[in-house]
């Protein structure tokens, strides 16, 4: 008996999913609000952190990762996941041929 690719994944990493809204303040700043939408389990595959130069000329260390889950659960790019002790921004969501979802996420280190 062979396992399907989804069953073979290590879906043992919990992540809290947050919907994120941003509003402008009277002073011209931005206020970010997170609303907990649930907990999902997935397969966490981190990339090696990379040094990048931002548009402001400053350097940043950014870490990207792939988080494979069974359900999209209403998540959209720019929502956030809290896993492994940090907040990760969802950059993209792709559905695989094997019916799972591949989230590309990143965080500033």
Task: Give your account of this protein's structure.
The protein has 109 residues and is mainly beta. Helices cover 4% and strands 61% of the residues. It has one domain: Beta Barrel (Thrombin, subunit H). It has 1 helix and 7 strands, in the order H-E-E-E-E-E-E-E. The termini are far apart. The mean pLDDT is 88.
The share of residues in extended strands comes to over 45%
Shape: globular
Number of helices: 1
Helix- and strand-based class? mainly beta
End-to-end separation in angstroms reads 42 Å
Name the CATH superfamily assignment: Protein of unknown function DUF3599
Please give the largest β-sheet: 6 strands, antiparallel, barrel
CATH hierarchy, class: Mainly Beta
Give, in order, the helices and strands. Answer: HEEEEEEE
Mean pLDDT reading: 88
Unreliable residue stretches:
none
- What topology, given as strand order, has the largest sheet? 1-2-4-7-6-5
Give the helix proportion (percent range).
under 10%
CATH architecture: Beta Barrel
Number of domains: 1
Indicate the radius of gyration in whole angstroms: 16 Å
What fold name stands as the CATH topology?
Thrombin, subunit H
Instruction: Count all strands and give the number.
Output: 7
């Amino acid at each position: 008996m062979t396992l399907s690719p989804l069953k073979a994944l290590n879906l043992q990493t919990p992540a809290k999913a947050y919907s994120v809204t941003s509003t402008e303040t009277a002073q011209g700043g931005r206020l970010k609000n997170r609303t907990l939408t649930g907990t999902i389990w997935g397969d966490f595959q981190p990339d090696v952190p990379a040094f990048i130069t931002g548009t402001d000329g400053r350097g940043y260390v950014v870490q990207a990762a792939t988080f494979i889950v069974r359900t999209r659960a209403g998540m959209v790019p720019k929502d956030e996941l809290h896993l492994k002790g940090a907040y990760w921004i969802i950059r993209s969501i792709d559905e695989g041929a094997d019916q799972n979802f591949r989230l590309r996420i990143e965080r500033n280190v």
